[in-house]
Specification:
The protein is an alpha+beta fold. It is built from three helices and six strands; from the N terminus they run H-H-E-E-H-E-E-E-E.
Length: 141
């Protein structure tokens, strides 16, 4: 099994769909490609497992602190350590949020910047998010 442009295009489409879903505040669509037993680490370091909680947590933040927020996701790298496994590194910028969680700080320009790592696996020809780990960029002295 070889990976190639078609796999990168499928993964890129998933990331584009995630960005569009976030910007609509649509938790169901945001979680559409998340595995039923996937691993999710949020910006606060909270770890949860499963598609249902991934969707529920996003529905909660889309209705409260990140209501009407907008993100831009930029892929830094897609690596295929195995033909059916992809590691995707993204930079994200968020604007128009209501407020930020305790301990999370935006840059001086008001943009919340994060590094998002997603691990995807290919099952029966379809890519699924198996792990999602998001961290905010810390101010450096």
């Amino acid at each position: 099994m070889e990976t190639g442009r078609a796999d990168e295009a499928q993964i890129g489409a998933i990331l584009e769909a995630q960005q569009e879903a976030w910007n609509r505040g649509d938790a169901r669509a945001y979680a559409a490609h998340f595995l039923e037993d996937g691993s999710f680490t949020n910006i606060l370091g909270d770890v949860n497992y499963g598609q249902a909680i991934f969707e529920r947590r996003h529905a909660e933040i889309f209705a409260t602190i990140f209501l009407n927020s907008q993100i831009t996701m930029r892929v830094r790298r897609i690596a295929f350590p195995l033909p059916d496994t992809a590691i995707v590194d993204c930079d994200t910028d968020m604007t128009s949020y209501q407020r930020l969680p305790p301990g999370v700080h935006a840059a001086a320009d008001g943009v919340l910047r994060t590094r998002l790592l997603e691990v995807l696996v290919k099952i029966e020809g379809q890519w699924w998010i198996a792990a999602y780990h998001n961290v905010d960029l810390k101010k450096r002295d």
